[in-house]
Amino acid sequence: MNKDEKLALEYLKTLGNGIPKFEPEGNCPPDFAFENKLAIEVRRLNQNYFKGLEVEGIERATIKIHQLLKNCFNSYSSNDKSYFVAIDYRRPITQKTKVLKKEIKDTLERFLSNPKFFPAKHIVNQNISLRFIEATKKHENLFRLGINHDFDSGGWLVGLLVENTSFCIAEKSEKIKKYKSKYHYWWLLLIDHIGLDIDQEDFAELKNYSLNRGSLIKL
Asked: pTM of the full predicted structure?
């Protein structure tokens, strides 16, 4: 049981239906079920990048880039100075890991050949650039990751929730198709990973949207 499923279980226990069974059918839907034939699927509600038929979790590229940056940073020992590195990027990021790592390393070397005129901006490729700012004190490493600017992340909160919730519903509706008849009711429990606070006004606006719930009775 992963963290999202554990969180879902604690919530489901509060509904007064007893304790649901985890993966009653084994490694296939649903994630949980109550004895009254109520099935529950659990999914993380994350922001996705949509391009045509391609869908990618927004965090996938971020994790990849951050790991490569830290890997490259660790290959440098600090001298008498240290620099904060801000990264600006937008998708699609199609380069293979080996190619992207070389592009980042080449950019760091290019900066070090003439480290001045701060903040110094250097292009990694058409979708990624690095900005260097001299630190006011020496740190353990020559480079430290500073500001992360993802041009595809964030936006109008209600719009993000509607778009990504609709995707989750469609995805789960397709997944449960061949199992749907085994249970009387199906719920989808979404665990928020978008991480933006929704206030009462946003919530009221969200309720105005009529989401197609597909094969799911309750969201």
From this structure: 0.78
